[in-house]
Amino acid sequence: MGQQHRNEKIAKIFFLITGLIAVASVLLITFFVFFQGLQPFFPFNKEGRYSFWKFISGLQWKPNDEVAKASYGILYMIVGSLFSTLGAVILAVPIGILTAVYIAELAPRFVVKILQPAVELLSGIPSVLFGVFGLGFIVPIIMKTSPYARGQSLLAVILVLAVMILPIIVSLSVTALQAVPHAYREGSYALGASKIHTIFHLVIPAARSGLLAGIVLGTGRGIGETMAVMMVAGNSGGGIPTSLWQQIRPLTVNIAMEMGYSSGLHQEMLFATAVILFLFIFGINLILTKITAKLGDVDVKF
Amino acid sequence: MSNFKIKNRVKDGALRGLIYLCTGLTVGSLLLILGYIFVKGVPGLSVDFFIRDFNDKTAYVTLQETDDLGVQVEARDDGFYITSMEKGSPFASAVNQNGDRQKLTKGDQIVSIGDTKLTAENCGDLNALLPDTGQVQAKVVRVGGGIFPLLVTTLMIIGLSLLIALPIGISAAVYLNEYAKPGKILRSIRFCIEILAGIPSIIYGLFGMLLFVRFMGMGFSVLAGACTVAIILLPTIIRTTEETLKTVPESYREGSLGLGATKIQTIVKIVIPASAPGILTAVILCIGRIIGESAALLFTSGTQARIPGNLLESGASLTVQAYLAAKEKGDLSMACSIGVVVILVVILLNFLSRKVGKLMTKF
C-alpha cells in the first residue's frame, strides 16, 4: 500500500511539473528577451550604452558598428505598427462581423456548410503565403496608382493584415452570436420587430463581449504578424508615415529583417524592439483576459 | 402602407444588402488568394518538383583519352540527360566541387566534356569528344528546383516537435483537469497558457535563437527549430486535450476507481484512451500550425535547403523556403508552387479534423 501511495504522489508531482512548463516557458521567454533587450539602457554595458529616450522617441534606424554614428529610433516603427493594425482592424471588423451575422443568422444550412470551412481555410493559410499574395498581387496594383515608385506601403500592409485577421474575427463572432439565447430573438419578433432589426438592435448588442474578444485577438495578431508584413511594408529607414502610400517598418519587421546578421549593440537594440513589442502583446492579452472574464459572467446569467 | 413601414423596409433591405456584400468580400478575398497562388503555382508542379533537390548539384568527372565513357544520353528540351550508365564507366567516380565522391544516376545532365558543350549534333557519340591525348573534365549537373529536402525537413520538425510537446502537453492537461484545485497555481498556469498563445512567432524565434541555438549550443539546427516550435504548440495541445478530458463522463472514472484501480491507473488506462480523438485533433491542429510556421523557424532551424544529415544540421522548412524564394530571389512562381502544396495539406488537415471531431461527439 505504501508503495502504491508513493507512486500516486510521484505521478501527481510529475503532472504538476509538466503543467508548470508553460509557466517556466513564459518566465524564460520574458527573462531572455528583457535581459538582452534592456542591457543597452544601463550604464557600463559592454556593447555600448544607448539612451532609452532616444530609442523610444527616435525617428531613424541606422545601425552602425560605431555606436556614436548609429541611431536606433523606433518611434516611427511603433507608429507604423499601430497605424497598420488599426487600419486593418477598421477594415476587417465590420466586414468580419457582418459575415458572421450572415453565417449565424441568415444563411441556409447548406451555405453555412460551405462558408465555415472556407473561413477555416482562410485562417489556416500560412502567413508567408499572404505575403506572397501581397507582393505579387496587391503591391503591383498599388504601384500603378501610388505617387511613389514602389508599391510596398502602409496601404499594402493594411490590406494584407485585414485579410489575415478577417477569419479570426468571423469565427469568434459566429461563436458569440450563436451564444445569444433564442428567447431574445423570439421576444423581439413577438413585439413585431423584423429579423434585420432584431439582429442589429438585439443580437449584436447582446453578443458584444464576444465580438470584442474577436477584435482584440485580431489586433494582437496584427501587431505580431511578421512574415507577411515584411514582404509588403517596404521597410523604410525612418520617418513617421503621413500617407497610405508611404513605406513603413513595423516593429516585428525590424527584428526579423536584421536579426540574421546583427551583432553587438545592434543586436541588443533589436531585442529592445522585441521588448516594446512584448509590452504591446502583454497589454492586449490583459485586455483580452478582462473581456473573456466578463464573457464568463454573461454566460452564467443566461 | 404607412411611410414609417416603407422606411423600415428600405432600411432592412439596405442592411441586408450590406451583410451580403461583406460576406461576398470575405469569400472573395479567400478565392482571390487561392486563385492567385494556384494560377501561379500549379504550372510549376510535376513529379520532379516533389522528388528533386532544391539546389542544382554539379559534379565533375575526370576523363582520360583512352576511356570508354559508357554512358548514353538523351536530348530533351533543356539539356542532355543520362539514360544509361555501364559498370566501370568513369562517370561512376564523379566528384563535387569539394572533391567528395558524388554518385551520378539516370536523369543527371551532362553539360560539357572538356571545352565542348553538348549539342544535338555531337551527343550521339560522346566518345568522339574525348581528346586525343591528356585528360579533360566533364561537367554533370543534377538539376534542382524540387522541394524534396524541404518536405523532409518539414516532416522532421513536425515529428520531433510533436515528440517533445505531446507528452508534456497531455500531462499538463491531465494535471489541470484531474488534479489541480482552484487556486494560485491553477490560475498562474492558465494565465501563462493564454500568454503563450498570444506571443507572436517572431518572439519565439528570438527566444529559440538565444536559448537553443546559442545558450544550449545546438546551432541553427532542426533540433533547435523543433524545440522552439514545441513551445508554440503547448497551448494548442493543452487546451484541446483539456476540452476532451472534460467530456469524458465522470462515471468512467468512478467505475474504474470503484473496481479498485488507483487514480494513476484510471488516468492512464481509462481517461486518456477515452480522450484519444481529442488528442488526435490536437495533433492535426499542431501539424497545421507547424507547416504554417516560418518566423520562429527562420532564426532557429535556419535556411539551408538540403536534407539535414542529422538533427544538429540546419534545414529550411517549406514555408521558410517559400519566403526566401519570394523575398530574396524574387521567384514568386516557386513560392506559389510551394504554397499550392501547403494549402492542399491544410485543406486535408481541416477535413481530417472535422472527421475526427465527429468521432468525439460519441459520448
Task: Give a brief outline of the structure.
Chain A has 302 residues and is mainly α. Chain A contains 12 helices and 2 strands. Helix content of chain A is 75%, strand content 1%.
Show the helix and strand layout.
The complex is a heterodimer of chains A (302) and B (363).
Chain A: H1 2-38, H2 52-57, E1 61-62, E2 71-72, H3 75-106, H4 109-124, H5 127-145, H6 154-178, H7 182-190, H8 195-206, H9 208-224, H10 227-232, H11 251-258, H12 264-301
Antiparallel strand pairs in A: 1-2
Chain B: H1 3-41, H2 47-51, E1 57-64, E2 71-76, E3 79-85, E4 109-113, E5 116-117, E6 135-142, H3 148-179, H4 184-198, H5 201-215, H6 222-247, H7 250-258, H8 263-274, H9 276-292, H10 295-298, H11 318-327, H12 332-360
Antiparallel strand pairs in B: 1-6, 2-3, 4-5, 4-6
Give an account of the 3D structure.
The complex is a heterodimer of chains A (302) and B (363). The longest helix of chain A has 38 residues, at 264-301. Chain A folds into 2 domains: 2-71, no CATH class; 76-301, MetI-like fold (Orthogonal Bundle), CATH 1.10.3720.10. Chain A has 302 residues and is mostly helical. In chain A, α1 crosses α12 (264-301), α3 (75-106) runs parallel beside α6 and α3 runs antiparallel to α9 (208-224). Chain A has helices at 2-38, 52-57, 75-106, 109-124, 127-145, 154-178, 182-190, 195-206, 208-224, 227-232, 251-258, 264-301; strands at residues 61-62, 71-72. Chain A has a two-stranded antiparallel sheet with strand order 1-2. In chain A, a hairpin with an 8-residue loop joins β1 (61-62) and β2. With 363 residues, chain B is α+β, with helices and mostly antiparallel strands. Chain B folds into 3 domains: 3-44; 56-142, Roll (Pdz3 Domain); 148-360, Orthogonal Bundle (MetI-like fold), CATH 1.10.3720.10. Helix content of chain B is 59%, strand content 10%. Chain B has helices at 3-41, 47-51, 148-179, 184-198, 201-215, 222-247, 250-258, 263-274, 276-292, 295-298, 318-327, 332-360, and strands at residues 57-64, 71-76, 79-85, 109-113, 116-117, 135-142. Chain B has a 4-stranded antiparallel β-sheet, with no helix packed on it. A two-stranded antiparallel ribbon of chain B has the order 2-3. The longest helix of chain B has 39 residues, at 3-41. Chain B is extended and about 95 Å long. Chain B starts with a helix and ends with a helix. Classes of the chains: A mainly alpha (302), B alpha+beta (363). At the A-B interface, α1, α3, α4, α5 and α6 of A face α1, α3, α4, α5 and α6 of B.
